[in-house]
Amino acid sequence: MKKFAVMFMAAALTAMSVMSASAVDLPKVEDENYYTKFKDDNISINVYNWGEYISDGSDGSLDVNKAFEELTGIDVVYTTFASNEELYAKLKSGGVSYDIIIPSDYMIGRMIAEDMLEPLNFENIPNFSMIDEKFVNPAFDPENKYSVPYTWGVVGLIYNTQYISEEDAKSWDILWDERYMGDILMFSNSRDAFGIALKKLGYSFNTTDEDEINEAAELLKEQKPFVQAYVMDEIFDKMQGEEAAVAPYYAGDAITMIEANENLAFSIPKEGTNIFIDSMCIPKSAKQKEAAEMYINFMLETEVAAANCEYIGYSTPHAEALKTLDEEISSNPIAYPDDETLENTESFLYLPKATSDLYDKLWTQILSNDQRYNEWFVPILMVVCVAVSIGINIMRSIKKKRNTY
Amino acid sequence: MKSRAVSLPYMLWMIIFTVIPLGLVAYFAFTTSDGEFTIANISQVGQYSGVLVHSVWLSIVATVICLVIAYPLAFILSRKTENVQRTMIMLVMLPMWMNFLLRTYAWMTLLEKNGVINKIFGLFGLGPFNMINTPGAVVLGMVYNYLPFMILPLHSIMLKIDDKVIEAAQDLGASPIKVFTKAVIPLSMPGITTGVTMVFVPAISTFIISRMLGGGSNMMIGDLIELQFLGNAYNPNLGSAISLVLMVLILLCMSVLNQFDADDDREGMIV
């Protein structure tokens, strides 16, 4: 889902849904009176979400934003982002104000640590009681003051059953298997890539131990000759087109890929994996906090949550919505793995700056060629460059003067 | 000189969108996140020298290939009738009507292991060849995308080379090689420098081509800058420092190039 091409589509679809002026069927809500509070105040809220990450009325699904606008009289200005880091950079650079953002776990942890989030007033979000207990008080927000879970999922291996046996796909080791040299895809974002290497080594995703991280980096360097490409959303094309045999990716997207090509299958490696939760939060810069809380509450209405879940394909943390879903979805082990598998998962937490810097540095080393240069190379190069270009221009003007005589 | 007022909107535009941002880049490059002066960012760029050298190398290769392809084409074109020229220039420009990303995406489908080119080779029992995700694929993407920027300035400068000049050289007994090196090349120099600049500069700072055709493992300087802003560690200061280094490098290239068209009264881009 996290894809720029998809983002264009999302933007186009949003535009389309704005243009079609027909009324939507309002979903059933718990307490209609609650939503009338701002009916005549003519306010608007800015919602910033992942691309393709809300039910938008296409193919007969519920148009969530439109329904909210009709129900409450609050305008929803909906924009999308492609990565947590993009969201962070946007908020950090200032100049924008959002009322609702939907980052993932580790980014929420980081934003809490940097005091960028507003504590929520749960009195305004009565529907929070319908969230499955498993997702209350998550590790990144231990007192559950700042976030309300929206979707979740796990990372696993998507593989082509023609080339790879189910047995082999049960371990991350397959991504280091010489037999599949050139047929392996790997995450192109450092956190997920390092995560896999750390789990293979038996370490925590959230380790700050430099030796452990260096060890993981060595492992990733070892893997490089086997890797066909480092990708994110190109994975859809490459796996569906059988360009590669195995790749790690998110469960929700794996379901989409398997629908497109039935030779594909999904497995959750035995070493354990990452569970991610995307949650709704209100940033400090929000102007309409109460209206934003109303929006969060609306997203937690059973029908709305179910519509979103069906549309997005990721798993829902909403206990009531899960019950209303198709048996086919709610019993799909990819989307809703059993508790035993979930026991063996870990979520990403916020890493301190030193560790993030180390990740970036090692990751660049892995992706670029291995040649090492002296660290003075660049400053000296810069000075030489400037000197030479000044020299050239001076020479030239001297020459010109001479020519005029 | 007549009226400065006419250039005012452009001057304003330049100040707001070029000079001030450049100043900000320089400011960020020499400060820490708390705003204190430091040169740590610049010296930190040193650890990425490998990426820098790799990008410079790939863009030089791409520029040379562009020049080699475009030069004869532009010359031959400029000697054709006007109608032929118009059609050919149109053909050169045609791919540019399509979105840049789409064009690059199309190359992905062509070069893939199960892609169109390998399928055609397969018909003759050859291959499959490993083409995508190599530095070669990145260079190919650059050449394909930036070739028109080389052809157009070369063509427009060669139009101005009078046939009589070439004939005169031949009359005076110059061999074809002499004609080419002593008459054609010097006269087309401004076109060469403009073309080289217009290919080299976007090629060295590209990041989407290397990501799509290079498989993510051929990191270029553009990818590195993007990583500083949208990567794990959000480090705009280091990102700015890398950009500054890149700008200085480009400055040098331009100065060197400028050397070749010493007379300012000739046409071409003055940099």
Please give a quick description of this structure.
The complex is a heterodimer of chains A (405) and B (271). Helices cover 41% and strands 14% of the residues of chain A.
Descriptive tags:
heterodimer, A: 405 residues, alpha/beta, D-Maltodextrin-Binding Protein, domain 2, B: 271 residues, disordered C terminus
Provide structural commentary.
The complex is a heterodimer of chains A (405) and B (271). Chain A has 405 residues and is an alpha/beta fold. Chain A has two domains: 199 residues, D-Maltodextrin-Binding Protein, domain 2 (3-Layer(aba) Sandwich), CATH 3.40.190.10; 135 residues, Periplasmic binding protein-like II (D-Maltodextrin-Binding Protein, domain 2), CATH 3.40.190.10. In chain A, strands 4, 7, 8, 9 and 10 form a five-stranded mixed β-sheet that branches. In chain A, helix 5 packs across helix 6 and helix 6 runs parallel beside helix 14. Chain A starts with a helix and ends with a helix. The two termini of chain B are 20 Å apart. Chain B is an all-alpha fold and 271 residues long. Chain B has a domain of 171 residues: MetI-like fold, CATH 1.10.3720. Chain B is built from twelve helices and no strands. Classes of the chains: A alpha/beta (405), B mainly alpha (271). At the A-B interface, helix 3, strand 6, helix 7, helix 14 and helix 15 of A face helix 2, helix 3, helix 11 and helix 12 of B.
